[in-house]
């Protein structure tokens, strides 16, 4: 695994736990953890249970005893590592967003296409693997809501509400590519396309930055109150609002923001069809709302399905009905799905091509926002 | 009162009940009900308690013993009646939307401006008078959520989901002006502006029609299954999605649809500010969500305020805490506010100018939608 | 109508509004309002729209042009008035609880039995007439939850949480009979029996008083802070907890309290059967939770039915789907049901016998509580 | 660890994950897994990551290199194993309920008392370690709801609703001790006492069995439909309802059932005090309802606190705010708390004495139920 930040902890838990609950065709070995800071990566490896460490990702790519490269670094290094790993014949799991620019994403998808027979790449949209989201897709694809017409998708967080929150790399375009759009909007788009089975073909959008200057990260610490805090420019969006049309005829609205006060991790999606609807909110991740318009009229309503039954996706491996799963289970399910596909010689989903397609939608939103919200094709 | 459809029943209940719970400075008398069909209006008057009837609205405008004209007809007759009534020195209460076209709305606002001293006109956005909505405004205006940044407003119904629902006048542009946009979007816009105290200055939007042909109303009845049902074209939108910027710096998303399966009367609004947020859904109309980001961090969360305390807006007249009000109470509160303003010689809110402003926003959405969603100024 | 307190306002609204929305076989006339204080009753009559007033309830009973006596006085005068009215051949609607003592309740039920042919008495458990509660009964009686096994019923309010709330008559046994038990527990029992269609046959219970002394009502006012407040003893329960067995085999728990902090008017009931369950809370009175255990396992869950469809009980007279009703609509429905039954010569429900049976259950709880919670038969 | 059923999986996950997220003073080693069936325990050990296996629990007690014995067998073997382990100087973690009989529980508590200095025993009420439950206790103990008055506690499941569910050992008194009472009621009692900080001193209760005969487990399989299914008697309760008084003056109601249709794992508790209230439901385990009656009246309501902030109990080790934890995290927290207490030479909570006290309450309920619900002291 390359990288050992917050996502590193989550992926480590995925690799560690997956074989303890699921019957996997191959057992993952947590061989090598890579990070640029030797003592830091050593500490992470000890804590998370990785056998060895290295400070250069090339060490992993070059080793013959390593089959899988898991990339959890910031987006600007994804392309270089992933392409090299694929060329070296390694399977690749890469965190989302696939890359910071459309060009890099295209190069990565091309590298995955060119990879040898039986070498696969996957992008880490783990929210597909929340059982309630996976079950939402099952319902929609089985026709339970009829013809899909409307989508309402939003990913709302609030950790940037405070205007004095520091100017991290996530707020600088050169490092992060975009703001809430790429960080959160990518999930909202992927989940909408995953559940509906439709692809977005065009968009109109606006981007907005509410707080234009924030304290510089290293200058701010330790001096609060005594000297003037040095500030830098926020160069990404705080809020993205866009609407899109899908290739199957559906129409959707999307929102991504890290300034929606009171919403901590609210990835919400509502999908309405000709005979039903579903409703999901990641802040209540073990439940799915389902409206069945074919029931007798007086008995219709949104049913709060606790997606914890053994027959629900991923659940047979876990606890009795009603016992909740949490955030990190998505990473366990991701490890399971990835290992199974690799072992069976199948392309795991979502592929780099899927990741590229999401990137194109986000790119379309940016172009629309720069051009007075004009309608912009994304295919 | 001119008109005696669904809105006539609601307004009648407002006039009847207001003086029984509120201490009004003047007691409304339900003198004359006007409708084109003599026997129909006679039956309505008997049922609702109006003293007399007429078949021509001019009868009301010409009578000296009538002070107030309440207009609840479809939108295409609002302008003519309201302008005549104002010219005759009557106070006017006119249902929303103010008119079907921007031109008519402008003429009505001008007539209200020209009306004699102490003659007033009001437009019927009653949802402002749901106590939870009024309290939301109070909170926001008192600074309880800080600087207002984001608005998420939607009005969702589902009575047109069925593709075989007949082609009523509400689905024909020549009669209804627009579809969900004018019928429901008008409320979403008014409520957002009312609560934030900000005005929308520009929009980008899309309109969509999912079902393009529907059975003709009079042809469809009685023949189902035996002969081919004659169909006509739906010439209005089924769905309106738009985003707007407010003059105070806020940004908002809006949705109006009558095809959101499972949503019966979901006028929803969420407003996020720099120190808090509010959340409201008309389907749960006695409650308001309020997030106070100034509380200690571990105690923050959305508080479900039951807006039924005597100290909440309009509530001192009603029942003990926890006893719910319903849909029609908005009309009672409207009657109360209207009578009080008239008796005190004040302009009741929202004025025709307010109604015109909402109309301009909707008009901007239509123009944007016709021009590839290009950003469109609305002021 | 005899009495003109809070309940007088509610009943007046019921009589006033019922004929405006429902097609009644007879139109109620609000002829005479009776109260002991001449100026007070005069003011109430003017506000609520009663034609005449009197200060002695016998005036109503003796008049030939009055057909119905509606009793909304405190419980200790119910028996005398109701019995006299029935003897005079008047139909009687009497607020709950039927009486303060079992003996009075028995006398009232006997008087109703003895009343002339076509003379009827009804007790005012209006919560049966909340559409969601009525629909819950319909579901259960139609077999939608199978064999009824468990009931969880509670009526929670919080207006006595403050230990400095004054010692009103409701806190004195000689005037109120009991505390939360009779005031709120009566509703919890009636609703449970109404929905299940089963009668409670035995109980075990405890009663508790948390605040034993409170400021005397008339002494407390105007002197706060200056002199010692005089206090009196609370002689009724603050909390009643009891369990009961039903004649159909179900088992239930009950709670009544006016000190459940944060609960304003939470009459809650959950009923579980062999193939389903229902869940209702008066604080969310337009909704009913329904669990259908015969659906496919992965689609089961509590469905939030908005009980606002035209096909739901009482709803055809009101607004389109999704438009909420409020507290007072129960009184309108009560007026409707009463008038219809009287006009058709049927016994309206719940009868005085039904009210007496509830009283016996409450009496059983008191006896059990006095005898170390020993199991006590109530039939 | 002795035992390898469902609880074995949960405890294994606790031991495995705790050191990966928390900084523990000692690292647990998963040395030996014991089960009576050699091949079964071998498979479990391989799956869960235990190094060695044995078929006799005495093997564990006798080994010098083992410091901790974790007991997850059915209740009837707890006493023998725990007492032997304590006598051998091992720390013991024992699943709830402590034992099947009061006598055994007393013996275990005595053994823990007699254990050598620095040897500790703990009972596994893990729901205390759900962050929202732990935070509820913190709030109540900090005085945030004032003087505690009322408790409403219930543990509702529904896996025995089907009358054809087989007669497992959990339905036989000789193996399980009691039914829902011991299985679920134990949690309801422990959680209520944990949060309030008060102990139950007396109870009145009833027990009920709805389904008296069920198919025998081994006879039923494979033959359904072809021959008459042999049935056996259910000798434990399906439902326990009881009320209790606490030593601090609070009064509470309790319910335990495995036949509450639609409730999968609903451990609910509401606690009301003189200045606030809390509300929790394990089916929504990342949230806590908190009512603060000291806020301005118009702003009061139940606040839905997402207990996922770094400052909430246990949360600093996990994910960013808003990222949910699940059922098994309680076992990770249990492992952490146990290891920390042992390493620091402190008695971990809840102790065997705490477990015994809960047992006494359940025993009191049984005695009350057998004696016509008579009030029964439990101290």
From TrEMBL, chains A, B, C, D:
Residues 136-278 form the GFO/IDH/MocA-like oxidoreductase domain. It holds the Pfam family GFO_IDH_MocA. The keyword Ribosomal protein does not apply. Transmembrane segments: none annotated. The keyword Acetylation does not apply. One of its GO terms (molecular function) is oxidoreductase activity. Keywords: NAD, Oxidoreductase. InterPro entries: Gfo/Idh/MocA-like_OxRdtase_N, Gfo/Idh/MocA_oxidrdct_glycsds, GFO_IDH_MocA-like_dom, NAD(P)-bd_dom_sf. Residues 1-120 form the Gfo/Idh/MocA-like oxidoreductase N-terminal domain. This is Dehydrogenase.
């Amino acid at each position: 695994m390359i990288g050992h930040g917050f996502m590193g902890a989550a992926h480590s838990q995925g690799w560690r736990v997956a074989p303890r609950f699921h019957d996997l065709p191959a057992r993952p070995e947590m061989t090598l953890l890579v990070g640029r800071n030797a003592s830091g990566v050593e500490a992470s490896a000890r804590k998370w249970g990785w056998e060895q460490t290295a400070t250069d990702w090339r060490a992993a790519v070059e080793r013959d005893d390593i089959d899988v490269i898991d990339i959890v670094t910031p987006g600007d290094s994804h392309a270089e590592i992933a392409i090299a790993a694929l060329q070296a014949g390694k399977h690749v799991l890469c965190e989302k967003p696939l890359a910071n620019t459309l060009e890099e994403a295209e190069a990565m998808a091309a590298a995955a296409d060119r990879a040898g027979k039986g070498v696969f790449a996957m992008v880490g949209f783990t929210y597909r693997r929340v059982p309630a989201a996976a079950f939402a897709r099952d319902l929609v694809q089985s026709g339970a809501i009829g013809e899909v017409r409307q989508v309402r998708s939003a990913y709302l967080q609030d950790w940037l509400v405070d205007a004095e929150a520091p100017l991290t790399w996530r707020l600088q375009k050169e490092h992060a590519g975009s703001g809430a759009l790429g960080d959160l909007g990518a999930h909202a788009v992927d989940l909408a396309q995953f559940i509906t089975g439709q692809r977005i073909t065009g968009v109109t959008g606006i981007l907005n930055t509410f707080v234009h200057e924030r304290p510089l990260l290293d200058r701010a610490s330790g001096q609060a109150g005594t000297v003037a805090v040095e500030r830098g420019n926020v160069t990404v969006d705080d809020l993205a609002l866009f609407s899109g049309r899908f290739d199957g005829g559906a129409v959707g609205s999307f929102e991504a923001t890290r300034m929606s006060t009171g919403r901590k991790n609210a990835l919400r999606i509502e999908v309405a069809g000709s005979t039903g609807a579903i409703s999901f909110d990641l802040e209540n991740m073990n439940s799915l709302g389902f409206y069945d318009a074919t029931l007798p009229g007086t008995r219709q309503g949104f049913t709060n399905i606790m997606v914890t039954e053994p027959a629900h996706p991923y659940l047979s491996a876990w606890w009795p009905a009603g016992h909740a799963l949490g955030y990190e289970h998505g990473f366990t399910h991701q490890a399971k799905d990835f290992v199974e596909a690799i072992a069976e010689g199948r392309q795991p989903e979502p592929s780099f091509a899927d990741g590229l397609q999401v990137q194109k939608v986000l790119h379309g939103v940016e172009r629309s926002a720069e051009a007075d919200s004009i309608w912009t094709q994304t295919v």
